[in-house]
Structure formats: structure tokens, C-alpha cells
Design brief:
The complex is a heterodimer of chains A (232) and B (241). Chain A has 232 residues and is mainly α. Chain A has two domains: 103 residues, Rna Polymerase Sigma Factor, Chain: A (Orthogonal Bundle), CATH 1.10.1740.10; 96 residues, Winged helix-like DNA-binding domain superfamily/Winged helix DNA-binding domain (Arc Repressor Mutant, subunit A, Orthogonal Bundle), CATH 1.10.10.10. Chain A is globular. The relative contact order of chain A is 0.09. Chain B folds into three domains: 49 residues, no CATH class; 81 residues; 78 residues, no CATH class. Chain B has seven helices and no strands. In chain B, helix 1 packs across helix 2, helix 1 runs parallel beside helix 3 and helix 4 packs antiparallel against helix 7. Chain B is elongated. About 27% of the residues of chain B have low confidence. Classes of the chains: A mainly alpha (232), B mainly alpha (241). Chains A and B meet through helix 1, helix 3, helix 4, helix 7 and helix 10 of A and helix 1, helix 3, helix 4 and helix 7 of B.
């Protein structure tokens, strides 16, 4: 008998992933609950980028961000049966991710760290990127550099503002969903997002009038739009 | 004249970006923006900030999904291993061993005493004491201590009179699954949890498969690492030249 464990338990083969592209997240997780591994693959395809983007901007370290993204998805799979459709699936996923990120950041903050003899300047005094001061305004700003600048700026937003801000701007969760993920009041969610935006604006202000940078951003957007067209 | 202060207008701008501003407030905000260049610039900056965040989405490494599958396999293995069943618990095994040892010793001792009291006279030489060989059988029971009575007991003087019931080893212990991997019902099994037992068997099979896969993956990883190391050292060599 060569049945997989899923088939042994549930007796039905999983549908192909292509068939699942139009299925809602909440229906996908029900399929996962019924042991259909391909439904989980579809969830991974939908969420891995969003989760990674959110987590990376929280923890800054790409390899740690990948690890936490994987951990989130593994927890989704292992605890799939605990999901009940009282909240949106995305809310549940980002709650898991947010808790993991918070725990990791708490662990990091508890760890003793070396104290520099040259004290770091206050947060407000730190330039967006030290290299920025030496940057030649005429050189072409590459996407990676731009991403590094934006990530550095994002990382300087205090954590309590950054979480709702990223959940809104990067993951496009609604205020109500962010309220569920963070456990904050709706008014607090709104005001924290507003404060984070204001802080983010301050931090990227030096970049905003840089013609090269804006040109690069337009190129990136054009490439992304072309890729989307090709996918369709 | 501006009816709205810039601080409030900027707060509303943030909500307007998220399409969470009531229509009447949105109207007031528009009127403020018409008259306030600073707030118009603020709005442009927020929109540009959003575009920058969207345009610099980080990319995952290429082997992300492969590594996820690997970790998922490990996690599933761990979850299966963590499923608690008394007969899978080594502590339970140890307890059972002690219990079995005690039972075997008691049964052995009782049997030996019975032999001595009822059967012994037929085989003894009239000394009235329990034959030394019977004592040694009891000692052997105690020493071996397994879940089987030793065959030797049937060979002791007088033992031949107790019939053929003890001609073969007597199992007094529980029916544990041995290392052979063959399924046996656990002690106290009532037959009500056959699905559980089959699931455990299935999980064990899955475990073995996953462990094989894992070792295969580990071999690949080591091979790739070795290749990478070689490539790196080649690159360094070229660089030095």
C-alpha cells in the first residue's frame, strides 16, 4: 500500500496547485486542515513574500527574517486545525508572525551587548545612511542600495509604531485587522500609523528630492508592472 | 482662512491614504489642502514613501521553499515523536520492567514454594528440606528477572510432576512491541483504540521515510557546501594571480 499519510487519513488526493489559485485563503486553510498539502503550498506562495517583507523590516537581518518567515509558515501548517473562521486568515498568520518577531526582539534585548566607548548619537542625529553623505548625486542609484536605505529608515521607527505601520503599508491589513493582530484599540492603531508615517517621512526626507532616486523608483515600478503583465 | 490646523489635517491625511476618512471630514481636508502648501507637500511625501516601500520589497533567497520543506519535514517528525503514548515513553518502559521483574520473581517464588510443599516430598530423599536445586531455580528466576520463567525450573527435581504446562516459557510480562518492528498490542489494550495504534504505526513508517529523506538532504547540503568551498578557493586563487 503506497498511500501517503494524508491519503491514508483522508482518502482523497490533493488538487493541483493551479486549481487553487482562485480559492480564498480561508478555504485553503480548510483544505490544509483536511490534509491537502498542495493547499499549503499555495498559502506559502501567497504569503512568503509579504511575511518576509514585514519580518525583515522588523528584525533587519535577512537570514533571521527568512528563518522567522519559515517558522511562521511551519506553525501555520502544524496548527492549521486551530484556525477558526472568526478572523481573517491573514490576520491569524500575521498574529503568529508578529508574536514570533516580538519574542525574538525581546530575546535580543535581554542579551548583554557590548557598550561602545564612543557613544552613538541620538536617534534623531543619525543620518539615514552614512554612505548617503558621500554619495555622488549623479550616480545611478541601484535598487539594492535604495532598498537598504529604506530598510535603514524603517528600522529607526520605534517598534511600537513600526509594527502597525508595516502591517498597513507593506501587508495592507485594514485598521481592524491590525487591531486584532496587535491587540491595540482602533484609535491607537490609527494614531500609531500616523506617527510612524510622520517619522518615516522625516527619515527619508533627504532622499525625497533626489532626482536619481526618483528615476530609479520609476524604473523599478515599470519593471514590476511589466512582470505583472507577463504573469497574466 | 483655514478651519483645520495642520497637525489635524496631517492626521486626517494618514487616514485618507487608507480610505478610512468619513466623507464630510474628507471635504474639510480637501479645502484645507487647497489653501495649505505645507500639507500638500506632506501628502506628496507620504505617497512617495508608500511607493518607496512598495518598490523596495525584499526578495527571498532562491532556495527558500526547499529549506522550508526541509524544516517542515523535521517539524512534522518532531511533532510525531512528541505525541505521547504510554508504551512509547521510556520511563513507562522502565516502570513496566520493574513491575514485570517483581511479578516474575513473585510467581517464581510461589511456584518454587508450591513445589517444595506439595510436590517436593515425592522427589526428595526424606530430609524434609527444599532441595538445593529448587532454591537455585528460584535464584535464577530472581537473577534473570525477565518476563519469562526460565526453562530450568521445569528441570529441577520434582518439577516433572507438575505436568506439561511449564514445559514452555511462560510469558508473565506485558506484550510490548519489540525491536523487530512488528506490531503487537500494548498492555491493557482493549481494542477500542485501534485507529490510534494504526496511526502510530503509520507515523513510525513516515518517520523512517522522513529520516531517510533528511539524511539524503544533509548529504546534498554537504556536497553543495564542498562544491561552494571549492568554487570559493578557485575564485580566491584566480584573484591572487
Amino acid at each position: 500500500m503506497n498511500l501517503s499519510l494524508d491519503e491514508h487519513r483522508y482518502g482523497s488526493p490533493s488538487p493541483a496547485r493551479a486549481d487553487l489559485q482562485d480559492v480564498r485563503d480561508e478555504e485553503l486553510i480548510v483544505l490544509v486542515q483536511n490534509g491537502q498539502k498542495r493547499a499549503f503550498d499555495e498559502i506559502v506562495a501567497r504569503y512568503k513574500g509579504r511575511l518576509f517583507s514585514f519580518i525583515l523590516r522588523m528584525v533587519k537581518d535577512p537570514s533571521l527574517a527568512e528563518e522567522l518567515t519559515q517558522e511562521t509558515l511551519i506553525r501555520v501548517y502544524i496548527h492549521a486545525t486551530k484556525y477558526r473562521e472568526i478572523a481573517k486568515f491573514s490576520t491569524w498568520v500575521f498574529t503568529i508572525a508578529t508574536n514570533l518577531v516580538r519574542n525574538k526582539m525581546r530575546q535580543r534585548s535581554r542579551r548583554p551587548h557590548l557598550i561602545s566607548l564612543n557613544p552613538a548619537p541620538e536617534d534623531d542625529e543619525i543620518p539615514v545612511d552614512p554612505a548617503d553623505q558621500e554619495a555622488d548625486p549623479t550616480r545611478e542609484v541601484q535598487r539594492e542600495e535604495l532598498a537598504a536605505l529604506i530598510n535603514a529608515a524603517t528600522a529607526k521607527i520605534p517598534e511600537k509604531y513600526r509594527i502597525p505601520f508595516l502591517l498597513r503599508e507593506v501587508d495592507q491589513l485594514s485598521y481592524e485587522e491590525i487591531q486584532q493582530v496587535t491587540g491595540l484599540k482602533l484609535g491607537t492603531v490609527r494614531s500609531r500609523i500616523n506617527r510612524a508615517r510622520s517619522r518615516f517621512r522625516q527619515l527619508i526626507k533627504p532622499m525625497l528630492r533626489n532626482e536619481d532616486l526618483l528615476e530609479e523608483l520609476e524604473k523599478i515600478e515599470a519593471r514590476a508592472a511589466a512582470e505583472k503583465d507577463n504573469e497574466h | 482662512m483655514m478651519n483645520m490646523r495642520c497637525g489635524k489635517a496631517q492626521e486626517y491625511l494618514s487616514r485618507a491614504m487608507d480610505e478610512a476618512l468619513p466623507a464630510d471630514v474628507a471635504g474639510k481636508l480637501e479645502r484645507h489642502l487647497d489653501a495649505c502648501a505645507e500639507c500638500r507637500e506632506y501628502r506628496e511625501d507620504l505617497q512617495l514613501g508608500r511607493r518607496l516601500l512598495a518598490g523596495t520589497e525584499p526578495a527571498l533567497s532562491e532556495n527558500f521553499e526547499w529549506r522550508l520543506q526541509l524544516r517542515l519535514s523535521q517539524a512534522m517528525q518532531q511533532a510525531a515523536a512528541d505525541a505521547y503514548y504510554p508504551w512509547d515513553d521510556p520511563r513507562a518502559d522502565r516502570k513496566a520492567w520493574f513491575r514485570n521483574f517483581g511479578t516474575a520473581a513473585s510467581v517464581g517464588l510461589a511456584a518454587v514454594l508450591a513445589l517444595a510443599m506439595f510436590v517436593g516430598p515425592a522427589g526428595r530423599t526424606g530430609s524434609g528440606s527444599v532441595p538445593a536445586t529448587v532454591h537455585s531455580s528460584a535464584a535464577q528466576v530472581a537473577v534473570e528477572g525477565g518476563d519469562r520463567l526460565p526453562l530450568d525450573i521445569t528441570r529441577s527435581p520434582g518439577a516433572g510432576l507438575i505436568g506439561s504446562g511449564l514445559q514452555h516459557p511462560v510469558s508473565v510480562g506485558n506484550l510490548q512491541a519489540g525491536n523487530s518492528g512488528a506490531f503487537q498490542a500494548p498492555r491493557g489494550w482493549s481494542g477500542e483504540r485501534i485507529e490510534d495504534l494504526l496511526t502510530i504505526q503509520q507515523l513510525r513508517v513516515e518517520n523512517r521515510k522522513l529520516a531517510n529523506q533528511l539524511s539524503q538532504y544533509e548529504q546534498w547540503v554537504n556536497q553543495y557546501r564542498a562544491q561552494l568551498d571549492r568554487a570559493d578557493s578557485n575564485a580566491l586563487d584566480l584573484g591572487e594571480e
